[in-house]
Amino acid sequence: MISGKYFISFDRTRIWYSHSKGKKDNLLFLHGLTGNSTAWFPAYEYFLKKGFSCTLMDTRGHGMSDKPVDYMVKTCAKDVFMLLKHLNIKKTIIIGHCGGSMIAMNFAERYPKYIKKIVLVSSSYNVKSSYYNFVRYYACLVFSLIFLFPAFKLLRLEKKGGWVDYKYYRGTSDLYFPRIFDDLKHVNIIPFIKSYYDIGKLNYKKKIKSFDYPVLIIHGEKDTTFPVKIAYKMNKLIKNSDLQIIMNEGHIPLVNNPELVNELIYGFLKR
Fold first, then answer.
1. Is residue 41 assigned to a domain?
2. Considering its fold, how many domains does the chain have in total?
3. In Å, how far from its chain's centre is CA 220?
4. Which of 74, 75, 118 is nearest to 210 (CA)?
5. Is residue 145 part of a domain?
6. Closest Cα to residue 122, out of 217, 27, 56, 31?
7. Phi-psi bin for 87: left (phi > 0), alpha (psi -120 to 50), beta?
8. CA-CA distances (angstroms) from residue 99 to 85, 121, 199?
9. Distance from first CA to last CA of the chain, Å, rounded?
10. Phi and psi (nearest 5°) for 266?
C-alpha cells in the first residue's frame, strides 16, 4: 500500500496525496469521478521504478480527502495548483482519467505555465451528449432516492473516506454494478451529484485547440461512457496530440489493462 499525507488547500479542505521524488519529470495522476487514487497505484509504482517523480491525490469528496461543500471542477483544479505549490513543483506532466482528465484540462487553462505534457485517458472535451445527460440525470435521481430512504442506509455515503482496491475488478465491464457500488460507498452523495452536474456543463473545444504542449489521448475502442469517436475528434482538435486506441477495451483501461496503459504512457514520455 502506498503511504501518503494531507495538505491543507486554499479553503481549509484537507487533501490526501502521496509524493515520491525521482530524477526525472514529475507525473501527477488524477483519478476519475467517484474513483480514488488507488486506480493509479500500479502506474505510480511503475513510473517510480523508471526514475520519475510521482504524485497522486484523492480529489476533494473522494477517497481519503475531506468532503466539503464546493466540488466544482475549477475548484479541484485549484487544489492541484495548491498541491504543486506545497511541493514546490514548477512543471509537471498531468495524467488524468475521465473526470480527472477534465480537471487536467481546466488546470491547463488556468495554470498553463505548470504544464509540460498531458495524458488524457477515457476523456471528452464536451460531455453534453444525450447519452451522458441521461446517465447524469438518472444517476442524480437514483442516488438522491438512496440518500433519502433509510432502507438504503449502507449506501447513504456518509463515511469519512476510504479506498477501493481495483485489482479485484480487473476485467470488468463499464457497467459492472458491484464495482460501481463499491466506488459509491466511498464517495459522499453530495460531491457525486454536484460533480456530475458540473462536468455535464463543461465544453473545452476552444481551449484544447490552443494546447501548445504534447498531449497523449488513450481511449478504449468500446468505451460506453465516452464513445471512441470523441477521442478521434479530440485528436483532430489538438494539433500536437497522439492517439492510442486500445482495442476491445472500455472506459477503465487503467484498471483492466494497466500494463498496456503504462507502456503507452512511457513511450509518450520518452519522446
1. yes
2. 1
3. 15
4. 118
5. no
6. 217
7. alpha
8. 22, 10, 8
9. 31
10. -60, -40
Please check the confidence at residue 131 and state whether its pLDDT lies above 60: no
**Exposure string (b/e) for 34-59, b if CB count within 10 Å is 16 or more?**
bbbbbbbbbbbebbbeeebbbbbbbb
Phi, psi of 209 (to 5 degrees): -65, -25
Containing structural domain, residue 107: 5-130+193-269
Residues 6+ positions from 71 with CB-CB distance below 8 Å:
60, 61, 190, 191, 194, 195, 198
* Helix or strand holding residue 220 (H, E): strand 215-220
Its pTM stands at: 0.91
Q: Which of 12, 38, 21 is nearest to 170 (CA)?
A: 38
The answer on pLDDT for 232 being more than 60 is yes
Specify the CATH number for the domain of residue 36: 3.40.50.1820
Mean pLDDT is lowest, of 108-117, 125-134, 230-239, for 125-134
* CA dihedral sign, ordered 200, 201, 203, 207: negative
Copy the grid coordinates of residue 78. Answer: 485549484
Contacts of 255 (CB under 8 A, 6+ apart): 39, 166, 169, 170, 172
- Residue 34: which of 207, 149, 155, 154 has the closest Cα? 155
Q: Where are the alpha helices (DSSP H) in 22-129?
A: 41-49, 73-86, 99-110
**C-alpha pair distances (Å), 11 with each of 7, 30, 84, 86:** 11, 20, 16, 14
CA 128 to chain centre: 18
Q: Which residues, other chains included, contact 115 with Cβ-Cβ below 8 Å and sequence gap of 6+? A: 91, 92, 93, 94, 107, 108, 213
